[in-house]
Amino acid sequence: MLTADGGGTRAVTTTLADARGQTISDIPRRSAARFPGKTAIVHRDVRLTFSEFDALVDKVAASLHEEGLRKGDTLALLSHNCWQFPVINFATARIGVILVPVNFMLTGGEIAYILDDCQADAFVVEDTLVPVAEAAIAASQGTVRIRSVIKLGDTETSHHWTAFTTWTDSEPSAAPDVRVGDDDVIRIMYTSGTESRPKGTLLTSRSLMWQYVSCVVTGGMSSDDIEVHALPLYHCAQLDNFLSTDIYLGATSIIVDGPDPDALLRTIERERVTNLFSPPTVWISLLRSKLFDIVDLSSLAKGYYGASALPLEILQEMERRMPGIRLWNFYGQTEMASLATALGPEDQKTRGGSAGRSALNVETRIVDEYDHPLPSGEVGEIVHRSPHATLGYLNQPEKTAEAFRAGWFHSGDLGYFDADGYLWVVDRKKDMIKTGGENVATREVEEVLYQLDGVAEAAVFAVPHPRWIEAVTAVVVPRESVELDEDYILSHCRTELAAFKVPKYVVVADSLPKNPSGKILKRKLRDTFNSLADS
Q1: Angstrom distance (rounded) from CA 357 to CA 417
Q2: What is the pLDDT of residue 437?
Q3: pTM
Q4: CATH code for the domain defined by 49-205
Q5: CATH number assigned to the domain with residue range 432-534, chosen from the 4 options 3.30.300.30, 3.30.10.20, 3.10.105.10, 3.90.1720.10
Q6: Cis preceding-peptide flag for 25 (omega within 30 of 0)
């Protein structure tokens, strides 16, 4: 049959592809067929079943098509967490439009760069963010031709913006039948901007679908889960490791506006939440909340953390105060869509701080500067092979080639495998401190600082120094009602660290700068304290 000539062969090939396909756009429909009346999404006072969610995806996809968007066009989305976010995520995929989630903390100029880089055809914006969106459009090259506003507050917008409700409240209409392949780009995720300009990471259904399977198996997820989503959905960790994976499984997702600790604890109690993902900074804020020992957290069975390893002292505190919870450390990058390795519950006590083993569909190595594999115990760059991996960086072929040299994705992280094959992340290449000719891993120093009972948060980084070239510097945030001084902190460090690793400077501060995902912004700390050695 497959050797037939001309159009017959093409027709059969197309029919086979239809029968065998599964892309991101299929997920809501297939989950709705399995769990039509089950609650899929909760946000504020909106509760959607899987059947209702899929119907909204179809409506928005059809409306976008009627607006003139076609396969390969781009739609930028600027919004805080809301139920509309996953609807747009799947609606764009259903018609092959490329979704570009945008960090809501960016300035108009920074957003303009993204709009121009991806040549955005449409822009969907939360009402409170319309002023910065309009500044971005004015500063851009002007490719945006469709504007829609999501009404989450009371902000009035001009007539240039179409209400998102005109798409969701339209008469039922099936989305057009658009053929979207496994390796067609359906998402551009911009890196968090630790470099001068963010890079647009190209993700496909192949990347994301394989990653969802890895999350389910590696993370012990199931359709019975009730998960709260508090971190920003513009970030692939919350959107793809958890929210989209829940919709894929048929689990229930509770979307909240942000990671306010008291509100988050109340939500866990009210909705009987079973799963929560948060970076260490948010887990720490929950432990420090006055509500922590008051609310009923007995439903919480699975906890996930990422962005950085949990300090061992915090991990031990969580085990004491939440004895019923099982923990996973998810490690990865946007370019891996984003899971690469994980440390499971059975290893938290014995290997706390490790990034674990490769996820189901990932192969990981440690290589030297010449891309030669290194034996266990030796520090080198962490590299991966996986169908999770990005297709590359938008408009940046040189950086794509560099990231994928020798057939592996180069993470930019430094680490090593122990004798049992567990991965230990030492540092980012750019965060490793070279002081007086010696290498200092910032994470090692941070672990020592967290041993002090009065330390709530700590960050270690380098500042320029005339003698040491780079000086180890620590900014420490004390717990509430605790006083810390530099001498006390340094005395502790001297008993636990080699002399060259002890911070040359210690600053006690009220808070640490973070992005909306809870990641500490060491770049801002370096900028703020760049001249410490001059004083």
Answers
A1: 9
A2: 66
A3: 0.84
A4: 3.40.50.980
A5: 3.30.300.30
A6: no
